[in-house]
């Protein structure tokens, strides 16, 4: 799906709103490992993010970066025997879910925090009608009788635009298409008006037009129910249409986080640059789509330094020695890259990213002369005026390494 620049006229309103609101969910310094036959897999190494009422946070990153594990930890869905939650806290309305009893967690799961997954078939019961499944979800958390719950289930099916809901409620999951099953999952998730909806790649298995409609539906329902949403995807293309804020994950860590404008148009981490360059835009020729070279690291045998360094064309010497901390860019934006350290050599980002910076200036109202916000036009202008970039050598940053070691 192509990404259009978000509409903005001078002020980043999202930023202003975000600073004011209180967090409904806070994940702080989460560390999780798994016992496996090959040894300890350090899946989540230090993950922090937060969510406000009515807000949508997108979590993006390649396969294996830890998106699902960090959100499953919120609802206690990780395999207990094999999982070691080494550190951190998950505060839901101020209460640490990692310290909650199984009974408390069961109550939170379903009624306060609901999850939908990529493949609805794995979460739906194949031998129960869909209406009854939604009704059961309602009855588990209310005192409604079966008949009233079923009537409410049909109303919810109408809300997610299932035609002929009164009849379809008596159909079984296999009688629906993938997109329709995902709508049923959304209806089920919303049955108890959850405070938080976690959608783990809910559109990945669907074709593009169905994807777009499911995303629209989640957005509409979110506004109606004032639900906060965590939307997990490895496709940055859909993020601009859903998210207020974005957290980019790599190798079990959040490496960049900011408002959608900040991450799309003022990205600071070379991994985010790579993800953005690998996302089709209006001005990209699909034949030439870039992919980030190399593979994610083996999480059971991490080398010292930044796990992204071997794939990073902008890696400095220091990256192979010490993992970068999060550097603050604005009150809402930070990134874990040594390029933000004052002592680092100044580098020129790739051309596409420079073009995005021009758009960002425009969105922030810094570019007074410009009147149209055509991304393609801006990109071409920036391409023409930009300098070529080149990777930095180890020597460039030896000074930084020495400085840090003092
Ligand atoms: N039960 C488990 N036992 C061992 N390792 C696990 C287990 N579950 C997840 N992992 C590992 O934890 C890491 C993070 O996995 P996770 O499922 O969160 O990735 P993801 O970002 O959701 O990827 P995807 O986009 O493929 O869904 C991976 O290295 C994965 O292999
Ligand atoms: Mg996953």
Q: In words, what does this structure look like?
A:
The protein has 15 helices and 12 strands. With 406 residues, it is α/β, with parallel strands linked by helices. The strands form 2 sheets. An 8-stranded mixed beta sheet has the order 6-7-8-3-9-10-12-11, sandwiched between helices. Strands 2-1-4-5 form a 4-stranded antiparallel beta sheet, with helices on one face. A hairpin with a 2-residue loop joins strand 4 and strand 5. The longest helix has 18 residues. The N terminus and C terminus are likely disordered. The structure holds adenosine-5'-triphosphate (ATP) and magnesium ion. The site of adenosine-5'-triphosphate has 16 residues, from strand 1, strand 2 and helix 2.
3D shape: globular
The biggest sheet amounts to: 8 strands, mixed
Q: Which parts are unreliable, with pLDDT below 50 for 5 consecutive residues or more?
A: 1-11, 370-375, 382-406
Nearest-angstrom radius of gyration?
23 Å
Class inferred from helices and paired strands: alpha/beta
Strand content: 15-25%
Bound ligands, each once: adenosine-5'-triphosphate, magnesium ion
> In which range does the helix fraction lie?
25-40%
DSSP E strands, number: 12
What string gives the helices and strands in order? Answer: HEEEHEEHEHHHHHEHEHEEHHEEHHH
Number of helices: 15
Mean pLDDT across the residues is: 83
Strands of the widest sheet, in order across it, are 6-7-8-3-9-10-12-11
Distance between the termini: 49 Å
């Amino acid at each position: 799906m192509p990404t259009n620049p978000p509409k903005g006229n001078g002020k980043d309103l999202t930023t202003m709103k975000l600073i004011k609101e209180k967090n409904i969910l806070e994940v702080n310094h989460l560390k999780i490992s798994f016992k496996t036959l090959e040894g300890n897999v350090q899946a989540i190494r230090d993950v922090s993010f937060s969510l406000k009422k009515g807000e949508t946070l997108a979590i993006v990153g390649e396969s294996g970066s830890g998106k699902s594990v960090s959100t499953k930890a919120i609802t206690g869905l990780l395999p207990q025997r094999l999982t070691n939650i080494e550190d951190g806290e998950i505060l839901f309305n101020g209460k640490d879910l990692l310290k909650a009893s199984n009974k408390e967690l069961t109550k939170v799961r379903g009624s306060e925090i609901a999850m939908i997954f990529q493949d609805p078939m794995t979460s739906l019961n194949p031998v129960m009608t869909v209406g009854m499944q939604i009704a059961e979800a309602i009855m588990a958390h209310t005192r409604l009788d079966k008949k009233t719950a079923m009537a409410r289930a049909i109303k919810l099916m109408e809300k997610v635009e299932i035609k002929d809901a009164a009849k379809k409620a008596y159909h079984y999951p296999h009688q629906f298409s993938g997109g329709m099953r995902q709508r049923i999952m959304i209806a089920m998730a919303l049955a108890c008006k959850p405070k938080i909806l976690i959608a783990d790649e809910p559109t990945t298995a669907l074709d593009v037009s169905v994807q777009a409609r499911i995303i629209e539906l989640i957005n509409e329902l979110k506004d109606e129910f004032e639900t906060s949403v965590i939307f997990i995807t490895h496709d940055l293309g859909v993020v601009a249409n859903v998210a207020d804020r974005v957290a980019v994950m790599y190798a079990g860590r959040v490496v960049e986080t900011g408002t959608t404008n900040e991450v799309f148009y003022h990205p600071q981490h070379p991994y985010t640059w790579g993800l953005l360059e690998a996302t089709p835009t209006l001005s990209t020729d699909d034949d030439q789509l870039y992919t980030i070279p190399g593979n994610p690291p083996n999480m059971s045998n991490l080398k010292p330094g930044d796990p992204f360094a071997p794939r990073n064309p902008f890696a400095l010497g220091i990256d192979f020695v010490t993992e970068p901390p999060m550097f603050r860019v604005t009150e809402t934006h930070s990134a874990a890259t040594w390029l933000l350290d004052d002592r680092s050599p100044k580098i020129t980002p790739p051309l596409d990213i420079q073009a995005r910076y021009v758009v960002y200036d425009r969105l922030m109202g810094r570019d007074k002369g410009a009147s149209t916000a055509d991304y393609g036009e801006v990109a071409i202008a920036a391409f023409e005026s930009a300098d070529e970039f080149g990777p930095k050598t180890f020597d460039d940053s030896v000074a930084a390494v020495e400085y840090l070691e003092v």
